[in-house]
């Protein structure tokens, strides 16, 4: 039976992994006959032809943080967005969905959008793409270092540590936002949470986030779109957002330590692009190419010419789509030993695992693979076999359907007893 699904995310364009995941999932749901529409912020970069655009709350830019009176308005919206709540109510009336599937709704939408969904008795699931419900700063980072102070403690740690860009004001706002949402149990209106990795699920359990409502469903690779690439690629490839936590500066430094013929392609955009370009000119002149934000087709082209895909993050990545897409194209991957990445890349099998923030170790691992085409070929074959066996889109859709069915059953049971959480 085909259903009407409302996919919800604050950004509705390919900004990062969460958006790529949601847009790809929606495309496959539509391919099989489901009706899928989107709800998000009215952003100028949103993909065109959004049928519910008239219901979207207005665009607000939070990076960099607004100043003056606009800061107060933005702070209020982060905690509870009346525009988001009204917009969601209107979207529900227009679409009448059978399921609401939320992704990143923090800040620009806020959990206010969950209230009309709950009142309408519509099942709601939420895929967790980061650590926001356990860490006010999303990333389990404090000034670039791993930190779990707020996981088992109060959100005030974010203020005390000034973990948002070293700013007392910005950090206090994040503490307030998360503290209010925890106190109000704002996310209790989500029927089931989906965690792509066991690591993230463990963090959420330790933070007291919905142990009985957590379901682990790994991400996917679309095996129809990502076919094995011809063996013989020569370049290193990074795909992702160009921000501090991604560790691209370490990768650029590693390339600078490697032989002159080593080339790196970087696909993505973000706040550190200019600084990274300057760094590349200094430590690896002429050997790093910045492609900017690219679409899925261009990502596949870049993977087809890649010898190794690299995810050098210094934060606990959840389950990056780029790893699975690299696997699907038989490209081995080098990652750091953080978050959910070691669940995917087994050291010496589908790629190599190195410590974070260690350009020397990263350069050594990349050099070993570039110097050994046969090892790369065998790792690529193992990666492709693994993704076929465990991470295909059809299997993923079946798992998502199981979560949808369970969420629907929970709502029906709640209606039967006439109660509310």
What does this structure look like?
It is a single chain. The protein is α/β, with parallel strands linked by helices and 421 residues long. It contains 15 helices and 14 strands. The strands form 3 sheets. The chain has a 6-stranded parallel beta sheet, sandwiched between helices. Strand 3 (99-102), helix 4 (114-119) and strand 4 form a beta-alpha-beta unit. Helix 8 runs parallel beside helix 9 (273-283). The longest helix has 25 residues, at 393-417. The model has no long low-confidence stretch (mean pLDDT 93).
Keywords:
421 residues, alpha/beta, Rossmann fold, six-stranded parallel sheet, 42% helix
Main sheet? Answer: 6 strands, parallel
- The CATH superfamily name of the largest domain is Glycogen Phosphorylase B
Quickly name the level 1 CATH class of the largest domain.
Answer: Alpha Beta
Structural class: alpha/beta
